[in-house]
Design goal:
mainly alpha; elongated; 2 strands; two-stranded antiparallel sheet
Length: 230
């Protein structure tokens, strides 16, 4: 049977048109998929940036509270040495030997750690930490005259400054009066230092928990990070 040329041409043109339409449809589909994936990547990139920013902030807070806990514990340790009583205490040995070097070293260590703790409380700025700093400033304000008698000056911001010569010249009895026992400056500060350390540890745990929750919220509900882009 002979097929007319016009009939064949019409069918060939029809097949070509169908193929062209199919290619355009596939092209649009591929483009839409690429666009959708690109949107997902951009959206994920934005979430990742936010997550990284939050993680950096959490890391800074963790570092702050770690330092706060460390300095507060050091304050408490020096306070224990200075406020101890008995024949083997710092001031008992100083009075027996007339050598105050060990007691002076403890005072210097206490002052250094105390100032660092106050700086951490100031940097934190939470209501609780402001309260701690206020209480400590109250103690140093009331003890300013006594502290000055052994070469320790209270600054306007509540931190302490040491006059090396005046501190070295203070006798064992004066040092004991200002720093010794539970009624001395170190003994009164010790309890607050313990509270600061405990609070800093709680804040560290809270920050760690919050960082984990943020990570889970970002990827946990969608599978793991790598499955998300499949």
């Amino acid at each position: 049977m002979r097929i007319p040329r016009n009939y064949m041409n019409s069918h060939m043109a029809s097949d070509s048109t169908v193929n062209s339409l199919l290619q355009r449809a596939l092209s649009r589909s591929g483009k839409n998929k690429r666009t959708h994936k690109s949107d997902l990547l951009r959206s994920s990139d934005d979430r990742t940036k936010l997550l990284l920013a939050g993680t950096a902030t959490a890391a800074q807070s963790q570092k702050l509270y770690y330092n706060m806990k460390y300095h507060a514990e050091q304050v408490a340790d020096y306070a224990d040495k200075l406020s101890a009583t008995g024949d083997k205490s710092l001031f008992a040995k100083a009075k027996a030997s007339q050598d105050t070097a060990e007691a002076v070293a403890a005072v210097k260590g206490f002052v250094s750690q105390y100032n660092s703790m106050l700086e951490n409380l100031e940097e934190s700025g939470t209501r609780t930490d402001i309260l701690y700093r206020t209480q400590l400033n109250g103690y140093s304000s009331k003890s300013a005259v006594e502290l000055a008698s052994c070469g320790v000056k209270r600054n306007a911001d509540g931190t302490l400054a040491i006059d090396e010569k005046a501190l070295a010249a203070a006798n064992a009895e004066t040092l004991e009066k200002v720093w010794g026992g539970q009624s001395g400056f170190a003994g009164r500060v010790s309890g607050w230092a313990d509270s600061v350390a405990a609070s800093a540890e709680r804040n560290m745990e809270a920050q760690a928990s919050s960082a984990y929750s943020s990570l889970f919220d970002s990827y946990g509900s969608r599978g793991n990070y790598f499955n998300y882009f499949r």
